[in-house]
Amino acid sequence: MLYRKELVLGVFYFSIFQASSQTIATFNSIQPAVQTQNLVLPATHTFQRIVRSNSTLLSGETVGINLDFTGYVPISGSSSNGYLSISSERVYAGAAILSISLNPTTKLWTIGDGGNVPFPFSDIGYVNAFCAGTVMPNGHVMVCEETMAGADYNSDGYNDDGWIIEIDPASRTVINQDGVGGVDKLWAMGRQKHEDVVMTPDMSVAYWSADNDTAGYVYKFVPAVPGNFSVGNLYALQTTSSLGGGTWQQIPNTTAAEQNNTTTSAKDAGAYNFVRVEGIERGPDGKIYFAATTSGRIYRFNDLGNTVDQLEVFVESTDYDVDGAGPYPPVAWGNGADNLAFDGEGNLWVLQDGGNDYIWVVAPDHTAVAPKVKLFAIMPGGSEPTGITFSPDYKYLFMSVQHPNNSNTSSQTDAAGNAVVFDESTAIVIARQENLGANVPLPVNLTSFEARTEKNTVELNWKTASISNDEFTIERSINGVHFDAIGTVKQLASSFRFVDDKLPLANNLYYRLRQKDKDGKIVYSETKTINIEKQSILRLFPSPVSDKLIVQLSNATTGQVSATIINAAGVTISRQVRSATNNFEIHVKELPAGTYYLIVETAEGKSTASFTKK
Predict the structure, then answer these.
(1) Residue 341: closest CA among 303, 401, 400, 398
(2) 3-state helix, strand and coil shares in percent for the chain, rounded to the nearest 5
(3) 3-class DSSP state for residue 527?
(4) Which part of the chain is the Secretion system C-terminal sorting domain (predicted)?
(5) What residue ranges define each of the domains in the chain, with the CATH number in brackets?
(6) How far apart, in whole angstroms, are the C-alpha atoms of residue 4 and residue 208?
(7) Taking 60 as the threshold, does the pLDDT of residue 17 lie above it?
């Protein structure tokens, strides 16, 4: 699936098992386990939710689904101010670019401007299944299409998908590398089922991987002009199962026909099939590391130009002791090694797609004889970790939790105090606790907090053990990310009730309590989720009404719709039956003035709302 990379220059690195400083790789392995509904991290670390699928950006656009590459692009080398490029691995892919910054006081990340990158169809056709990518030394990003399913739909001579694309996050635009006509995909780099890409610090060589069972090749591209990937020589790696060394076989890539058929040309040239090559990364030692997902192995080699040497298995798929003399039994590495990234000490972070969907950390001096592997994280149920990148100071790890189960309901509090439910793809940042958030515990005086639906309202009830603040502010969200205040309740007792009778049109609503203690400290309750997907919210307007009453249901209906008007005495005034719709009008001009009730029945249930006839 995904992976990302940071280019490391002149880094001094030491074993994660010997490091004395409190770096992001300073932690004790977590206990191996199967997935629950929560994200499991070491006790020394925490996370903050940045954004989730379908969140609305300042541009008015929404974040895509199946979030993958999560590339932090520093502005002027900053570890606290940059862009976050988030790819969407879906049909008709997307890439959202957010401006993010770290508040030095709260130690929390905030989102500024944000929007989606436009991909002009006339220039490049459709874009599809963005998977991994890389943060380039020039401040751009590359994203990779992990599919070859499409044809040439825009009739430009190139099959639409299976390419690498370069994006400028500052302008949120695709780069026109050749300077001719419109923007381009990187045609000269060839069409494959791209997983990932990485390059040398001077952008004179790029390497990438192909996630393909029968054509899992490793490629290299040498641009004619470093940093401009529109023209150059393309190669595929040839070796044998004995490994040790290999040869770069040049692949024809001058014409559109040659570029469309890179996979066939690589096979004809004798390229070696590593079987589903996914994450690829350049290590601090200058070697190229890549993951073969089917076997679970991590390979590495030293590039000599026309040939490679030291081609070997760096991490084998076997059982590892992750806690030294600790109580945990050896843990199976399994298959699914996917995204890769190196931290500032040279530790290799391995995100697993399949197996147990773990995040592993491998020390730079790891060997088969003296293995050094630790277990960092377990993903929420149904999800895999994707898109790893680091801030330049390596204090902050950015990634996404991709495709968790929509049925997940358990919430956990992030560093910002938000109650996070991993039921949609979510981009997050992870750090040691001292570097992220104030880590303020929830007030112990809140003893219960419940939310339930009641007709066309949501009722909140909560209790406290003591009075420790002036008031509660009730906040509501339609996406679980951006909350708005919808009311306040003074704390004059120990039991409280609030009724939200102005529900927005949404399938899920999220509620939380904001408390300001007498010492001025702001804390939040856990978030409660109300699912109203099966019970349509009934909206009537205008009210009072004189002629046409507009009826609106929040959800699409199936079958027939029955609309019955009754008066305040419960007497039926009229009844209409119509075909399935969630928007219609009722003429009430002849009704006497007064209060009435409309009962709407559909296959999905019954809803009632009142209106006033003037």
Answers:
(1) 398
(2) 5, 45, 50
(3) coil
(4) 540-608
(5) 45-435 (2.120.10.30), 446-531 (2.60.40.10), 538-613 (2.60.40.3080)
(6) 12
(7) no
